[in-house]
Amino acid sequence: MTRVDTLFTGRVYYEGEFKEACIGVEDGIISFIGKEANAPSYDEKIDFKGLFIIPGLIDIHAHLRGVRLKHKEDFFTGTCAAAAGGFTLVLDMPNTDPPTNSRLRMMEKVEEAETQIIVDTGFYFGRPEEASEAEKLVKTRAIGLKLYPEDYSKKVQPSLVEIVNIVKRSNRKIVFHPEDISIIEQKRKAYPEMLRGVEKHSFIRPLEAELSALDVFYKSFGTSAHATHLTSLESIMKARVNGFTYDVSVNHLTLTDNDLLKLGGICKVNPPLRSPEEKQRLVESLNNGMITILTTDHAPHTLEEKNLTLYDEIPSGIPCFETAFPAILDMFHKTGLNIHAAIKAFTRGPAEFLGDRRLGAVTEGNLANLTVFDLKEEWKVRPEEFYTKAKYSPFAGRVLKGRVKATVIRGVVVFQDGEIKVQRGFGKIYGIGGINRSD
Ligand code: NCD
Ligand code: ZN
Ligand code: ZN
Fold first, then answer.
1. What whole-number distance in Å separates Cα of residue 106 and Cα of residue 234?
2. 117 SS3 class
3. Phi, psi (deg, nearest 5) at residue 150
């Protein structure tokens, strides 16, 4: 056997179980997995003794902001946070300022990101003004179209149907945020215009709005779409009946409306956190294989914005790259969440969603993207130490059991023991067809 560049050792997750093994990497690709006695010679050996090595985590829904929202997050801080959270590939959403909804804006965003990113990063585009712009966008390497409630839940114009069809025909993804704006507007009227605080958030944006949107979307655009951040078992059932793929965010799997009442604005997220019973049903759905994709929906805002007093002015979104996976490990210890199901839902599930067979598994021939964690280490969440610009968290001060120790992308350690190990721009742009080619 030929010599490899790097040999990683630890308890490796492959063929569905953890085994003490070595991973040999050549030119960023896994070329050997097996016992140390059979391992090839190497230039460098990195010993993750006592640690677990799983396929690199993939997050198909995150907000890296940048452009005119750099005060909330930029491509460097966002992807450092992703690396620190164990993520090797993240997909960024287009609800930016300005919205990423034309070929030109996509090119500007990619150009800004390219020199800054630490982990591999892909991009969605938002609803373009015209169908002709959609034709241009599907010629870029963008992952697909993201639609927000205000894009589709009132009267759907024929041009939007045309846009959706253009995207579908190009084999790009259609991802939508399911919440019906007309129901939300109706519910909002029950409260004073100058409503303070966030206690009414779950009443203003009830599950009913999510369920309705799953039907509205189906009626307007048919099937072959992905419903993101579902918050209930009922929504999962409806998404399945309507033929949608779907994901659940870690927020809804780890937090409830009690956290919203206790912590206020920092737990305001759309769709809202639901009841403890609903959260328990999500955990069971993950455990029994009904949830095959988890996302972070990392959504950073400034703490000043989150501390505003008027309900309508407090932005929705929870920053969580650095707590998402540890919070899942913690739930494995404390509530019997199935760790294998959770790992698959952040690796194999997203890789299948992307149709990328070189990701999501530790297998010879795959990209050497790896996440390394300590299952037992207990650590206190200190948001002031986060890489994200959003230095607050619903988990602040809590001790989580389970910690990300290292993140490896294409055979290179990008994060280890709290430190970022590569330069800005190490990450590559991920698009249709995989990471960027030289052409
Ligand atoms: C997201 C954001 O802040 O961009 N907020 C949120 O509450 N989830 C937008 C979104 O994903 O809907
Ligand atoms: Zn959303
Ligand atoms: Zn989001």
1. 35
2. coil
3. -70, -15
Q: List, in order, residues 6 or more apart from 254 with CB less than 8 Å away.
A: 279, 327, 328, 331
Written as six digits, the tokens of 195 are: 């409503």
Q: Indicate the class that CATH gives domain 56-359.
A: alpha beta
Q: Which one, of 112, 73, 108, lies nearest residue 305 by Cα?
A: 73
Quote the ligand 3 centre to 61 CA distance (angstroms): 6
Residue-level length of the chain: 439
pLDDT at residue 308 tops 80: yes
Give me the residues near ligand 2 (ion), CB cutoff below 5 Å. Answer: 177
| Ligand 1: residue whose CA is nearest its atom 1 | 317
Fold for the domain defined by 3-52: Urease, subunit C; domain 1 (2.30.40)
CB 150 within 8 A of CB 180: no
- Residue-wise pLDDT for 206-224, tens only, equals 999 999 999 999 999 999 9
Q: For residue 439, is pLDDT > 50?
A: no
The closest residue, in CA terms, to atom 10 on ligand 1 is 270
**Cα dihedral sign, 81-87-89-90:** negative
Q: What is the mean pLDDT of the segment spanning 360-366?
A: 98
Please determine, for residue 438, whether its predicted confidence score (pLDDT) is greater than 50: no
**If you measure from the C-alpha of residue 135 to the centroid of ligand 1, how many angstroms do you get, rounded to a whole number?**
26
User: What's the CA-to-centroid distance between 246 and ligand 3, angstroms?
Assistant: 13
Q: Which atom of ligand 1 is nearest to the CA of 301?
A: 3
- Ligand nearest to the Cα of 269, by number: 1
Which pair of tokens denotes residue 13?
């997750």
Are the C-beta atoms of 259 and 238 separated by less than 8 Å? no
Distance (angstroms) between ligand 1 centre and the Cα of 373 equals: 28
Q: Which ligand is nearest to the CA of 59?
A: 3
> Looking at ligand 1, which residue's alpha carbon is closest to its atom 4?
299
At residue 284, the 3 state secondary structure works out as: helix
What pLDDT score was predicted for residue 432?
A: 73
Mutate to test the pocket of ligand 1, among 297, 305, 388, 389 (most ligand atoms within 8 A of CB): 297
Residue ranges covered by each domain of the chain: 3-52, 56-359
In this predicted structure, what is the pLDDT of residue 434? 63
Task: Spell out the residues 6+ positions from residue 326 whose beta carbon is closer than 8 angstroms to its own.
Answer: 85, 379, 400, 402, 403, 404
In order of 369, 386, 436, the CA distances from 228 in angstroms are 24, 26, 26
DSSP secondary structure string for all residues of 405-420: EEEEETTEEEEETTEE
